[in-house]
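Materials and Methods. Structural model of Transmembrane 9 superfamily member. The 604-residue sequence of Transmembrane 9 superfamily member from Mucor saturninus was retrieved and submitted for structure prediction as follows.
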Amino acid sequence: MTSRVILIFCCLIWCHLVSGYKQGDPVHLYYNKIFSLKNQLSYSYQSLSFICPTQQHSRKKSLLVFDQDLRGDRFVQSDYKLNFLENQECKVLCKQPWSIEDAIKVEELVADDYLVEWELDGMPGATVSYTNEAPEHNYRIGFPLGFKKADSTFINNHVIFQVLYTSDPAQIGKYNIVGFEVYPDSIADGECSKKNVEYPYQQVTGKRTTVAFTYSVQWKEVKDKMNRWDAFLLPPNKERHYYTLLNGVIATLMVFGIIAVIILKTVYKDTSQDDKDLKLFDDADDFIGWKLISRDVFRRPIYGGLLTPIMGSGIQLLIVSIGLIVSLYMGWYHPAQPGSLTRWFTFFYLLGGVPAGYASARVYKVFRGKSWILNSILTAFVVPCGVLFVLFVLCMITWSQQSSLAISFSGWVSIFSIWIFVLLPLVCIGAYIGERSERMEQPSRTTQMPRMVPAKRWYQLNLIRILLGGIIPFAIIFLNWHEFLTSVSKGEYILSIDYTMAVSTLMFLATSGITIVLIFLQLCAEDHHWWWQSFIIGASPSLYMFLYGLYYFQSTKIKGLVGASIYIINLILGCSVIGLCTGTLGFLSAFFVIRRIYSSIKVD
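The predicted structure was written out as tokens:
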């Protein structure tokens, strides 16, 4: 049953095809939502009382359901009449009577810079923008609901749809839509013919009135073959990327150079000399302390039964991260395509269920845990429960504002169904395989009484190691993180796929190397409590990312307690996921290197 669900899910991802049209075919336009970058709230466009109510009631829903809920999407088929390759001029959609309350609501929404998002053939309506960085035009999703001028508010009641299309090489006489541009305008009394250069705008007044909503349709053929989503990407500063990437490579090489020195000099020298030669190092206790705790270094950590489920979930998210980055690089999905990231995230998250259960069970077996079933259940529940709790808090905030961002009942049913009936069995299967595997025997046995940890100097404190551990990985990912926050706050897609692939690899390598170095220094200080410390050091870059996210908040246009709460909650959720990935990477790196080091010495 579980394998069938995953197979169907894979087919839904790969079998998403662009519709082909021929002349005269009806093209459905869907209402979606209005959203604001100021208060972070979105509302269903159909729920607005001042727009033309649609006579259609058919809704467009995704199989996952919750992927639309997370974006606040509410698709309803509109009454706009669009036929392929048929231009239309100044068509009246409706004449909508407005009450005083409607006018007040419009003024509030326009003051908050609300944008309207519709959809045509799976593409969100976009406005064209030009920047100095890009040689060609770029798209921004949505168009303004209205605008303010001289202390007056005006509603954009006329829209010009310009649909870009190209011929379909696979089907003669058919075409594919590659762009959906919306040009809004404000025209009083429905006089959209624009016979005069200057014409009055449709002002929002504090009295009862009737507003005419009109539209025009233009079809434009594009000769050059283009990806329908590339125009949504804003090219970054390549020169700045090159310098940052070069610095990241140098920093990563330095870290692994330190590891090479440790392995080739300290460890090799210590393990190759006998006890008589070891006297030469009497004045260098800081470098041989790791040998003195060989009987304690593999002692089961406190709360080890919690560490293994978290580590298992971290492996799951690590698979998601690597899968998303590789898929993006291979062009299997496009970051600008609505819902594609959520679908692929869900796919890789489910795909990582078996490895998560397996790895968690193997380490749990090293800790000599008593119930692998309990461990597998915790692996499937601990981190997802934390994520769902955060989503529930976010849902309560948005629900109190009657926002479409609140996850619907069917969305929650979809989440829990996938969680219980797909993820849990996959994790249990992996845990069963791990339980049946042979236990990884440690290079040295532990004593009954744990060794006392000697007093530490200030630079040997755990807090100092945690703070040091995150600096280099954060410096590597900083520019990419800054561009991501800019994209979120400005509604743009600033992304270089090659650069993202490179810096992500460097960040993973640097995190792994830094954790190994700092944990080895901790062992040299005769501190054998390294299990949790390796995970925390590995996760420390996410702490810097969170702090910078808080600092960046002051440069955004977000206002109000609700908007700030949504921003911070999303920031916590994102940084926690990154922390779990890098923390698990740091833990596994330290675990295997320490096993290798202690397996090379003889313990009497």
